[in-house]
Amino acid sequence: MNKLATLHGKRWISRCYSSLSSQSLRVCVVGSGPAGFYTAEKMLKAHQGAEVDIIDRLPTPFGLVRSGVAPDHPETKIVVNQFSRVPLNERCSFFGNVSLGSSVSLSELREMYHVVVLAYGAESDRVLGVPGEDLEGIYSAREFVWWYNGHPDCSDLDPDLKSTDTAVILGQGNVALDVARILLRPTTELAKTDIAEHALASLQESSIRKVYLVGRRGPVQAACTAKELREVLGIKDLYINILESDLSKSAADEEEMKNSRIQRRVYEILSKAARSQPSHPISGQRELHFVFFRRPEKFLHSDDSSGRVTGVRLEKTVLKENSGSGRQSAVGTGQYEDLGCGLVLKSIGYKSVPVDGLPFDHHKGVVPNIRGRVLSNTHTEPLIFENGLYVVGWLKRGPTGIVATNLYCAEETVASISEDLDQGVLTPTLPRPGREGLQQLLDSKGVRFVPFNGWEQIDLKEKSLGSLKNKPREKITRWGELLKAANRESVTEQ
């Protein structure tokens, strides 16, 4: 942002200060996913005088509940009914189409609000750092999930599902299983969900018949949950391949299973599936292969100039116990094998991105914090905190957990805010312009935000379009169309 814009913003803020008489606690939550909504809900309940504003760069709220939860998991999305009641509180407002950084800076928010809680999650991806990672036909699982869920950033992704019969998914967590399920599930079943229309059309023409789920470690260490695993194994008329030799357990494996009910259940389900499957698939049957003890060494491509991926070179691994941690790491053996494919999806983890003025741990991909309080510097004693700045959700703890995990995460952060208020660390008696300041600042920059009733217009439109196709909704997947549906068609996307 240039100096003139910053000066302009500060003038708006100072003008708002002079117009304030009585003052309540002004809180801004950046990000409207589960972590953001739980935080707003808890703040409104805990502090009766607080005004809470939620901002999001998208015109639509709900974060990964809308763009991350698989379309065939409607029960998980029911939580939006609870979230939708939060902005109906007169002390709460939603500001969609407002991007932290370009629409408003972190320093401007901190000047306008007593409390800023960052809940914008993880919108980037970890990288493998192996040769060929930028070949055509290789995508992150996040991009693919956003594509089939109708996220406007990925509506033009257009993965080629017709030129190959084999897809390799690197990773064996829940997101990897979601992606495998969407590739393999009958499209007649997906057609009844809120899957994006462009994704459904592509899947209906898909040639993919074999999906390989590749993990560095063994079945004992598979990072998925039993529920997700049972669901993918239960796909109609699907051949499952799990090598019995991969199921042998070491003493260290037994110890891991003893300490984790989830790992024990996952291993039991995989063992049962391995025993109950025929030795070969029936002709034309779709196949799901679990490949354990392998890690990608490089991506292969054809000799022509297409630049497309044609396979993955995998290194065989063995497990080595980390001293004292109780965990086992995969170590390469120097033995390699090639797995041919025309589509690769990397499900190796999401990554948060920093913004100007925010302390950030680039190695862990999180904001350094203690119970949600942002640390200025982790290398000093005593510890120094960023006054009035907090984090919640994936930005706070890393990209782990389920939707409900964010409830406990939000409760902890809100408890820290309450403690800081009680101890006088935060001083809400000092006037801050809050909502009025934000509205005027956005107006001064020509940013027309989408309020919650704008989202309600999008919601009505999507449900109306969906009813014509016997779907719960037909998602609007492009920025311009979303803004038009919200009656904000003259807004530029953030």
Automatic annotation (TrEMBL):
Q: State the name under which the record lists this protein.
A: NADPH:adrenodoxin oxidoreductase, mitochondrial
Q: Which organism is it from?
A: Aquilegia coerulea (Rocky mountain columbine)
Domain FAD/NAD(P)-binding intervals = 26-185
Catalyzed reaction equations: 2 reduced [adrenodoxin] + NADP(+) + H(+) = 2 oxidized [adrenodoxin] + NADPH
For this chain, the family text in UniProt reads: Belongs to the ferredoxin--NADP reductase type 1 family.
Tell where it localizes: Mitochondrion
The keyword Isomerase belongs to this UniProt entry's keyword annotation: no
Q: EC?
A: 1.18.1.6
Record GO cellular component, one term: mitochondrion
In terms of InterPro entries, this protein maps to:
FAD/NAD-bd_sf, FAD/NAD-binding_dom, Ferredox_Rdtase, Ferredox_Rdtase_adrenod
Upper lineage is: Eukaryota, Viridiplantae, Streptophyta, Embryophyta, Tracheophyta
| Requisite cofactors | FAD
Q: What positions does the entry give for FAD binding?
A: A35, L64, L100, W394
| Gene3D superfamilies xrefs | FAD/NAD(P)-binding domain, NAD(P)-binding Rossmann-like Domain
User: Which residues bind NADP(+) per the record?
Assistant: Q172, G173, N174, V175, R216, R217, E228, G401
Q: Does the keyword Transport apply?
A: yes
Q: Which Pfam families match?
A: Pyr_redox_2
UniProt keyword annotations, A-Z: Electron transport, FAD, Flavoprotein, Mitochondrion, NADP, Oxidoreductase, Transit peptide, Transport
Please give the Gene Ontology molecular function terms for this protein. Answer: oxidoreductase activity
